[in-house]
Amino acid sequence: MIDLAFPWALVLLAPWAVAAWRALRTARPRGAVFAGASARLGGAGVSWRARACRALPFVFLAGALALIVGAAGPRRVLAREVRASDALAVMMAVDVSGSMRGLDLSEGRWDATRLDVVKRLFRDFVARRPGDLIGLVTFGGYASVRAPLTADHRALGHTLAGVEIPGGEDGLDAQGRPVPDEELLTAIGDGLSVALLRLKDAEPKTKIVILLSDGESNVGAVTPLEAARAAKALGVRVYTIGVGSDGPTKIWARDLRGAKVLADVRMTLDEATLKAIAEETGGLYANVRSPEALEAFLGRVAELETTRVERQVYARFRGAARPWLLAGGALCLVAACALTALLRRPL
Questions:
Q1: No. of H helices and E strands in the chain?
Q2: Beta strands 74-87 and 307-319: pairing type?
Q3: Dihedral angle at the C-alpha atoms of 314, 316, 322, 327, nearest 10 degrees?
Q4: Going from the N-terminus, what domains does the chain have, and what CATH number goes with each?
Q5: What is the pTM of this model?
Q6: What is the pLDDT of residues 182-220, one digit of tens each?
Q7: What separation in angstroms does the CA of 32 have from each of 49, 58, 68, 127?
């Protein structure tokens, strides 16, 4: 199979076609490319040199055509791969509000926050979906896109690893001061809305959002149910995950002396809203209280119906421009040398 590296070079065929048309239209050399020079030969003779002179414009045109083809960069495709894959467009919307500091998913070791466990299991989920386009949105008091839909899962993994709760595990900034409350709130509706904006024009027909939260929506410009209705209108299924439950949960905090201590705080999980989002969009809801439960639910999501997307991948080429360029240059050089030689001697 032949491919062109620089197809735009073929625009030069337009002036070439005009010159060829003029050369073919006239019977006398003076109407062709070398009209002025060939007219000096008299044009009335029938010698072989006169006939050769009249043929020179066409030799030059052939050379010019070969140069144009060579400039377009013809190349032979040595390896072409047509890859068909089952693909989803997935936006992960992850809660990074202050309640994600809870340690209840660390199974008594108190060494991993809810967000730490979620990041690890989401990374595993991404690794199981090599053909999918996956993006990442985080939301606390406001929503932000951390990664648009991408097939570069290595870069997505680096981005996911860098996601943190404002103030870290103890809720303090770099200067040791408490993080503003608005950064620790939960804007579920905004997070879902931002994820939908990224999915709207995605190529795969199957589009889903995996929305994970451990709290209740208490801030935001868009309510969760308004965002759910927008998802339904776009044909996007939303799979919601509620982490933990209502009740006391241990977190790391600072005592009056500034030392890190375990403290019990009461969390509030709005399961009703998360269930309503899933039901409105045709998705599923799961309440997870252990890493195993979260992993099992993500496994169910991984079995969703997918869309076949065919992509052509051209791996290797062999350039074929050199013969065209050499032939074109040779023909033009022959035409120029022959015309010069003919002009030096009278017919």
A1: 10, 11
A2: antiparallel
A3: -60
A4: 2-73+320-344 (no CATH), 84-310 (3.40.50.410)
A5: 0.62
A6: 556 888 999 999 999 999 988 888 899 999 998 788 888
A7: 17, 9, 19, 66
